[in-house]
Structures are given as C-alpha cells and as structure tokens.
Design a protein that fits this description.
Layout (H helix, E strand, L loop, with lengths): L16 H9 L3 H23 L5 H14 L10 H25 L20 H14 L4 H12 L4 H8 L3 H22 L3
Length: 195
C-alpha cells in the first residue's frame, strides 16, 4: 500500500490551502488527500451538528468532499477553501433535510427522534447543555432552512453575516428564518416552562 503525503514546508506548517487547491486542480492526488485530512474532522462535526448526530452525517461529509473536489475550478479564491467547503456542507445538509422531511411525510421513511446527547459534549456546562437540548428538542419539527440557520447561530455561534454567506442567502432572509425559528423556540419554552 502506498501512502501519499504532501510535501512539507520549512516551517512544518505544510502548504497553504491555496497551494493545495492549485495542486489538486492540476490533478495532484496528494493535494486532495491533504485537504481532506486537514478538514475531514471539521466537516464531519458540522454535518453531525446540523443533522443532530444522525448516521448519515458520514455520507453528507463524503458527499461534500466529492462535490468540492469535482468543482475546485469554480472556487475563485483558493485560500477560501475552508469557508467554501463549509458552505457546501450547509447547503447539502439543507437539501438532505428537505428530502428526509418529504420522505417522512410520504411514509417512505421513519422519523427518528434526535438524541441530543450524541451531539452535546459530555463536559459542556449544564446551562449550555440545557440550551442545546432545548434547541435539538425543537429542530426536528422546523423547516430545514430554519433548522440550519438556528443550528448555525445557536450551536455554531456564527454571526448573521457568516450564516448568510454559508447558506448563500441574503442577510434579510437569514434574519427572517432565525426570527421564525426563535419564535418557535420561545413558544415551545412557554408551553413546557423553562427548559
């Protein structure tokens, strides 16, 4: 078995994302492998948080990398690979959630309850863990666009402008989706009392 490794730099930091993207565009397999190794954990973690620990997070992460590697030539700023890849994960997750919701409504898929403890760190402070349980207790019922926006805001801690960029939406649209999701969260809190 041959192991492909990226050339190292004098600093030991390895090549920049831009250098790896350019090499990958030129057909260098080691560059794709290096980009995958660099971002696989982040992509999988984001997929798990958006899909709430579902088994298909692995598939989503793989699909995101396949999509990215087949469309590297469309990336205008090679140094922005990480942000571009995250946006691919976010958009792919949204599509997957919409498809799952439709299949559930048609009776072609069972609705599996979310297990919040699969995505909440064991050492999370109690108040944060309670907040995340509340969010994950609600998101299964949210439309996919609201769900993704809420997870990016409440779980990922992203700013509104970052969410707009990741979801490829206008800032106003993100605000509307978050407002709707937050409203549903508040109404759920009022019905159940404090989470």
């Amino acid at each position: 078995m041959v192991t492909l490794t990226a050339p190292t730099t004098r600093s030991g930091a390895g090549p920049t994302d831009a250098a790896l993207v350019l090499a990958a565009r030129a057909g260098e397999v080691w560059a794709q492998e290096a980009l995958f190794q660099r971002y696989a954990r982040q992509v999988l973690a984001l997929a798990q948080r958006i899909l709430a620990g579902r088994d298909d997070a692995d598939d989503l992460a793989q699909d995101a990398f396949v999509y990215a590697f087949t469309r590297l030539d469309t990336l205008n700023n090679p140094q922005a690979f990480q942000a571009w890849l995250r946006s691919i994960v976010v958009r792919t997750a949204s599509k997957r959630l919409r498809r799952q919701r439709l299949l559930t409504r048609l009776g072609l898929r069972r609705n599996e309850p979310i297990e919040p403890d699969t995505v909440i760190a064991a050492d999370a402070p109690p108040d944060i863990a309670a907040e995340l349980r509340a969010v994950y207790g609600l998101i299964e019922r949210l439309p996919s666009e609201e769900r993704v926006a809420l997870v990016l805001r409440r779980v990922e801690g992203m700013e509104l402008s970052q969410i707009a960029e990741e979801m490829k939406l206008s800032l106003a649209t993100v605000k509307r989706r978050l407002s709707a999701a937050e409203g549903r969260l508040e109404r759920a809190r009022a019905r159940k009392g404090a989470f």
